[in-house]
Design goal:
It comes from Paenibacillus catalpae. The chain has 188 residues and is an alpha/beta fold. It folds into two domains: 72 residues, no CATH class; 78 residues, Arc Repressor Mutant, subunit A. The protein is 34% helix and 15% strand. It contains six helices and six strands, in the order E-E-E-H-E-H-H-E-H-H-E-H. A four-stranded mixed beta sheet has the order 3-2-1-4, sandwiched between helices. A hairpin with a 2-residue loop joins strand 2 and strand 3. Helix 4 packs across helix 5. The chain is globular.
Amino acid sequence: MSIKQMTQVYWDTLVHPVLDNRPIYLVTTDCGLVQVTLPHESSLENVQAWVMKKVPNAFLMQEPAKVAPYKLQLQEYLDGKRKEFTFTLDFRGTPFQNSVWQALFNIPYGEMRSYAEIAESVGKPKAVRAVGTANGMNPIPIVVPCHRVIGKNNTLTGFRGGLQMKEELLHLEGVQSFKNKGHAKYRF
């Protein structure tokens, strides 16, 4: 009988004024950052459920020292002192989702792209709706900047953290050139 190798998964929380001083969870593996929760979805129960679904044979533990490098860079970003993240990411999605999330990660600080542009960049120009769905399932928001994706008509569109948070993150990056008349449920 073989013993399955356990995958160590580490978590800690971050509280910041940009996030209304509500905690978010940062979750890592030895391969990189795997999940960041948004304030409205932050609970250890949600983290546990996601990890059990996405990381086979996971052993989840609070480990501030393992999460500290990720937490520091995210803190610096929220403080307006960092424009790029230099740590590794551990994407846990389908190949298509991973390609979309990588495309999101490559959107430069202070810039925006439309869902159609992301679809084009991943070689699936007709998959705009699928890109919107993958964008909404991004497990590493803020770091993988799904907030930088807007509608083709330059309007804010759906964001799991709410349009107000999306607008605040864009303003943090100095972006003002969007219409904030989008709709929370309009995703493309």
